[in-house]
Amino acid sequence: MENNQLKKFTTPMFLNFALGFFGLQFAWQMRIILSGPVTESLGASPFLYGLIWLAGPFTGMVVQPLVGALSDKTVSPFGRRRPYLLGGALIAAIALWIFPNSANIADWIQNLTGIQLPALTALFIAAIMIWVIDACINIAQGPYRALVPDVVPEEQYSIANSYMSLSIGLGSVVAAATAPFLKWAFNYQMSITAQFIMAALAFALAMLWTCITIKEHQTKREELKDVAVAEKQEDTFIDSVKNFFALSPEVSKICLMQFFTWIGVMCLLIFFTQYSVHTIFEVPDLSTVSEEERILFENATLVGTNFSSICFAIFNFICFVVAIPIGVLSAKYTNKKVHIISLLTMILAYLGLAFAKDVKLVAALMGLAGIGWASICALPFAMLSQYIKKGTEGSVMGIFNIFIAGPQVLVCTLVAGFISKCAFSQGADAVNYHWEYAFLIGAVCLALALFVTNTIKEKE
């Protein structure tokens, strides 16, 4: 601090600031890519898979607003945000280790107690671990986003969020590409368990580094009084939400934009691995076949999963490459214009994925979608940050997350339910589903988000 003004960040400072988010995204990307194969091997149908995915949005809607508000009020020797960053990362690391070992843990409990457990016990343990992972990621994510207005000058909000987008892209690339690279370079197939352990270490160590190196703005006594007065005026969560929307008429538009955007985004993140395995590589639904047939399709499933990881690596590599240019362009041409163009590229990619069959074309389309992903990870937060009042950063970002988490509930239930009814026969005894329909639904929702974005009036 100099004369109560935050110092401008340099490039090395931004890179250091974004490192913890690299670890967070590493863990979340591993959960996105591999939770489907793990739960399907334990007996989860498409509809059950969608219900298990509800862990993320439900915990996000509850945890982020709560933790965000708590972090605004927290006073400790470790700062306001850092206890939540490190605590969330450490607990998530434990759950990331347990999740792929759910079947072994169920067997261990059965051998220890001598009680015959139900067939779906392992799936139940896996579902609980997904809830824990998602809750802990949300515990860390909200306060991390709140660090931007905490420590970065307002004129650097766009570029700061672009560095967060860069770390999202890089973390996802490393998470998705490590196993396929080892297979290609050394003919070593990294196990799913090993990949989750790698994610646990990345999350915990990267967040620990952030907590050690980032100095939080120490809230002054006068600011604490202002926050206390605001708290008296906001006796309930409803009051907080009312004050959130009272920040500006444009906040409602930004939230509506996020709502439609994240329906579209989750259609890709939730279903792409299943789309790769079952649509591109034509593996039938394995939750309904015998153990012998699962073994028969084991190699094709592995190839499809590795292909999905490669595509996510391409998707996030493009996000990594364009993240900083998007921040620079948005500073020059406004967040709104750059975001509209980025969303348009993602819509075109989705329409292509809905009809593509060639693996090279699918990979190229995922790269095109990565441009939109880079913008989604940065510019909506930069738009909102212009309206945040000092001392309310955590609660505002927590409430804003409702418009990210809420759409996921719709995708997990309505879209997953719709796909589960779009079954068709694949061979004599095999059933498959039209996973590609998710991209058509996603394209429509992204188009609605683009329309809303066009109505937003940004600050000069």
How would you explain this protein's 3D organization?
- The protein is an all-alpha fold and 460 residues long.
- It has one domain (11-455): Growth Hormone, Chain: A, CATH 1.20.1250.20.
- It is 78% helix and 1% strand.
- It has helices spanning 11-41, 46-53, 55-73, 82-98, 102-113, 121-151, 157-186, 192-213, 221-233, 237-245, 249-280, 291-296, 298-333, 335-355, 359-376, 379-385, 393-420, 437-455; strands spanning 423-425, 431-433.
- It has a two-stranded antiparallel ribbon.
- A hairpin with a 5-residue loop joins strand 1 and strand 2 (431-433).
- Helix 3 (55-73) packs parallel to helix 6, helix 6 packs antiparallel against helix 17 and helix 14 (335-355) packs antiparallel against helix 15 (359-376).
- It is globular and about 65 Å long.
- Mean pLDDT is 82; it is low at 220-225 and 228-234.
